[in-house]
Structures are given as C-alpha cells and as structure tokens.
Amino acid sequence: MSDSLTIPSDLLPRDGRFGSGPSKVSGFQIEALKAAESMLLGTSHRQAPVKNLVGDIRQMLASFFSLPDGYEVVLGNGGSTLLWDAAAYALVQRRAQHSVHGEFGSKFAAATLGAPHLDASSILQADAGSIATPELEEGIDVYAWPHNETSTGAIAPVTRLRGADGALMVVDGTSAAGGTELDVSQTDVYYFAPQKNFASDGGLWFALMSPAAIERVERIAASDRYIPSILSLQDAVANSRQNQTLNTPAIATLVMMRAQLEWLMSNGGMAFAASRTADSASRLYTWAERSELARPFVGSAPHRSPVVGTIDLDASVDSAQLRAVLRANGVVDVDPYRKLGRNQIRVGMFPAVDPEDVSRLTASIDWVLERLVD
Length: 374
Known about the structure:
By secondary structure, the chain is an alpha/beta fold. The protein is built from ten helices and twelve strands. It has a seven-stranded mixed β-sheet, with helices on both faces. The chain is globular. Its cofactor is pyridoxal 5'-phosphate. It catalyses: O-phospho-L-serine + 2-oxoglutarate = 3-phosphooxypyruvate + L-glutamate; 4-(phosphooxy)-L-threonine + 2-oxoglutarate = (R)-3-hydroxy-2-oxo-4-phosphooxybutanoate + L-glutamate.
C-alpha cells in the first residue's frame, strides 16, 4: 500500500501541521491555557479578569495594526461568517458591490443579495486563481472584497477606491490579518477571526472599524430597520468599549490569541509576521515553479498568497494518494478546498509555521512522488 511508505525522518517537517484554518497552535499557547486555569477558564466574562483579557487583546491589535486615530477594535460572538449577515443588516445602507474571486467572497455576496431590505448587490466576478477588484459604481455605499481568498490562495490589494466618497470599504481579512502587511486607513471595516494567523480557535470575530463605519452603524441602528441582537453592530461596539461581548465568549480562544499576539509583538509585530510568511511562501512557490509535477495555481506572482499556498499537481499525480502518504507520516491538512475540485494541495503558511518546515514539506513531497509516479 502506498500509504505505508515511510518518509525518512531527516526529510520530514519537525511539525507537520499545515492547515489553512485552524492554524497550527504552538506549545507556549498551551502553556498559557494552563496558566489561565484558575483565574480565567470557567469564570464570568463580566468580571475583571476576562474583561482585562479582552482589553489586552484590543490594545495589542490596535498596536499591531497601528490603528489610525478614531479607529476602534470591535469584537463579537460568532465567526467571520456571522459578520456577513451583520453587515447586511447593520452596515449596508442600500446597495453593496462585491468583488468575488472565491468561495468566501461569494458567501458574503449571497448574504447581501438575500437581504430583503437591500437593493440587489453588484457582483464583480473573477475566475478562481485570479482576483476581482472594486470598480466605481453609482449608488454603492459598501464596497466589499476578501483580502486573501482562503479557498484559492489569491491575495488582492487593499486600497481605498478613489471617488467613492461616502462609501465604506469593507474587507474580509480572515486569513490575511496578522500575516501580511496592511494599511488599515485604506479600509473602513477590516474583519477577521482568530483561528488563522492569530493561531487560536474559532467562535469570535474582530473588526477594525473607522469613525465613518461606526457612524454608519449608529445611523442605521437609529432607523426603523429591524436588526436581530446578535447581528447588531451597534451592540457590538458598545460591548467592545466595555471589553466584553453580547454573550459569553470562548475564553480559551482569547487566552491563546493573547499568547500569540505577545509572541508576534515581541518579535517585531506586523513586519515580523509578514516577513515570516513571505519566507515560507517563497520556499513553496519556488519549489513548485521548478518542479516538473507541480505549479502554482495562481498564475500572477503578485497575487499569490503568502499565507495560503495552492499548488496544482500534474495529472500523473493522484493528490488524494499523495496526501494519504503524507498524513500517515504525520504531515496533515494539505487538502485542497473541497469545492474548488482541483488536483492540488493547499498549504497554510501562517506565522506559527516554521519556514524551514515548508522546505521539509516540499522535500518530503518530492520523495513521495519519486515512488508514486512512474
């Protein structure tokens, strides 16, 4: 059986976790959980210890992203997917434009398209592996796009659309935030979840919100539009200013996120994180470009993600068979996005991943392919 192949230990990554979400969790985060056992885990989120934990994270995120004056770190229950519905209720005034180049951009578009109180959204669609960018259009009050499309490994620029005065720039940063360079001033709402570059678990969303976005939230909340409490961004802003969430948050998630932020900040913050993922990505894409059996799925080099790498495999390679051998040897979660339906692998290269392990991964793949492909 091919999955009984034993990859030499000197080739194998020291840590075989390359998932595109959740990220590899580091040992120091587990130690942080142990230290939090008595005063944080299993305690009230309305009391000082947990509120201080939330406050620490909000302050560190503000520092990590060098938030412009007036911007606020807002958080709430649920993941980034919940924010799509919250935006449809509490952020879009009348009509949104969505730049879609993968699964997650299309899901946000579906949320506003299905909202009965909004005009039909404008959709700019690009093929998987390329990107779509916003275009000036009359009547649009929210321009939305993913910074990094997790499903395809394509990364788009984050720049404010010229001439779109009064409209909000709403960017999904879920798999990009904390792993690549960003000028937050180019956005009004930059939202993400903690299970990617911040190496924690899901169940929460975070958003970096501009004064214009907060004003829009308050204006819509004051109108006669019905907004469910869990989707109320006004409630989320009010609770965040008190370092809490509407309902009980996942405290263990917050503990691990704080530990990851401490590690990132102590090593140089955003510049450190971006250089680390860029190093990993360079190793992966250089290998694929030189290989006779692999090539980067995203054709344009500037649009290849530094945090989620997608690699197409030659038709002579059975991706499922390759991944089975890797998994049997402790190298896990390099599966392609299921709905993309391609013969490929997808490699998470978040800051927690050691770039040297990416090199070891490619060496292990080469070793396996020599034995699987005639």
